[in-house]
């Protein structure tokens, strides 16, 4: 297939590319740590947000060094690709079937911190290249969903005043994230002009993901 062939060639190009991403700093890491919610839930490493927020400045310096090594290499640590999945019962009482549970994926807190730093760089690239529609409010800083709801309400109200019908289409994709075609996604980002330094991170972040399920005292691994 055309996409698969383009993806294969792109992966070869990325493997020899020496393009890197701007390094992070202790200040930037500290900023993201302060924004973490003090949750006590943890991934496989048993380290929670609550614990991260109590770390001394010297540890932040160590994190900065580690993060910058991985940024220079364009590599996402393999150990952080393991997710711990816990299942929540959707029922108020009784033993649920598999389709009556809600799986929650818990990742290592350090990995989420690292992802926030990379996401900031991806978001900056997308915003600077005007790749995100102005109408999109979800998952964007300083863009609130109520603002978008109000704009829709205003448009409907204006149309009603002018006796013009309003057509709205709502789409909800089932398991949209799980079904993303990774090869096509990487090719699409490359066609949009994403720098190879960031693209290498995306490839590394997506590849070789693993997970195990915890139910009570039992674990699948």
UniProtKB/TrEMBL annotation:
- Can you tell me where the transmembrane regions are? none
One of its Pfam families is RVT_1
- The organism sits in which domain of life? Eukaryota
Domain called Reverse transcriptase: residue spans? 94-205
Protein known as = Reverse transcriptase domain-containing protein
Q: Organism, per UniProt?
A: Rotaria magnacalcarata
């Amino acid at each position: 297939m055309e996409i698969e062939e383009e993806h294969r060639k792109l992966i070869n190009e990325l493997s020899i590319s020496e393009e890197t991403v701007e390094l992070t700093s202790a200040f930037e890491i500290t900023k993201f740590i302060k924004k973490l919610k003090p949750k006590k839930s943890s991934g496989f490493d048993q380290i929670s947000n609550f614990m991260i927020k109590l770390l001394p400045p010297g540890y932040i310096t160590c994190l900065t060094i580690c993060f910058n090594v991985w940024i220079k290499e364009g590599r996402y640590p393999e150990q952080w690709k393991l997710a711990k999945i816990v299942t929540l019962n959707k029922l108020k009482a009784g033993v649920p079937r598999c389709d009556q549970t809600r799986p929650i994926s818990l990742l290592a807190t350090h990995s989420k911190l690292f992802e926030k730093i990379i996401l900031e760089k991806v978001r900056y690239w997308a915003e600077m290249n005007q790749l995100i529609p102005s109408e999109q409010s979800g998952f964007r800083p300083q863009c609130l969903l109520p603002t978008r709801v109000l704009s829709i309400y205003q448009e409907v109200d204006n149309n009603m005043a002018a006796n013009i019908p309003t057509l709205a289409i709502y789409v909800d994709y089932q398991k949209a994230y799980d079904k993303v075609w990774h090869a096509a996604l990487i090719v699409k980002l490359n066609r949009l002009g994403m720098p190879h330094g960031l693209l290498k991170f995306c490839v590394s972040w997506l590849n070789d993901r693993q997970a195990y399920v915890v139910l009570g005292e039992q674990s699948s691994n």
